Amino acid sequence: MTAKGRAGAKNKTFAPPAPDRKKNEAKISHMKKMYLDVLIADDIRTDIEQNKYPENSKLPSEKELCEMYHVQKMTIRSSLQILKDEGRIYSKNKSGYYVQKRRIVKNLRYFCSTTSLVESMGKENESLLLKFRKIPCDKRISQRMKINIGTDLYCLERLRKVDNAPVSLEWSYIIAEYFPGLETFDLSGRSLYRIYEEEYQVNMDRAEMQLSVVFADAEEAALLEVAKGDALIKEEGRTYDYTNRFVEYTETFMRIDRFQFIK
Hints:
Order of helices and strands: HHHHEEEHEHEEHEHEEE
Distance between the termini: 66 Å
Largest sheet: 6 strands, antiparallel
């Protein structure tokens, strides 16, 4: 284009199109509806945590919740499904929704015994001793504990109950040298870690944990009162004391509906 042509050309400005108010209002209304179920689920969750709806109590019906929150039934059903997926509530056929038992929350960032966690929830904690014997370390445990085959270990199998219901099956492999005479203590009536602290002045400091999902065999199913083949959380742990000394290796099989892990 020549200089004359450029000079004669008209400059054009492009203004953005005028906003479509009705379209924007419809979009905002749709977004509000999308998040209503989340907000209602959060409100019901708070009521559960504050014990407005105690464990095993029935929630208001879908119709009652619709009237309480002034929303349609589909929104309430979506809210209840959120809480159901979280394990907060469960449904009974033709009966409604009920509050699930509180899960034992284990924080992966901090070391705390399960006994202390249960007690902090105000729950009754019971640990039934199923087996207790001294054994030489075999090849499988040697690989996990990274100690020599033949090392003397205390081997404990315990069933943990919370409010008289089984929640976990726990195996502990303890280096016997550090706790001589451990078999003389009542391991059902006292926390194992408290025995370490009070009787041996050994304080637990940290643990390394690995989590996986396994499926209950016949023995685990019978003890934990689940169906054979049901999913369980398996926690493998290596526990150290305040001197950074490796003390025990544990394998714990937990009911998936009774535990929650957070960071």
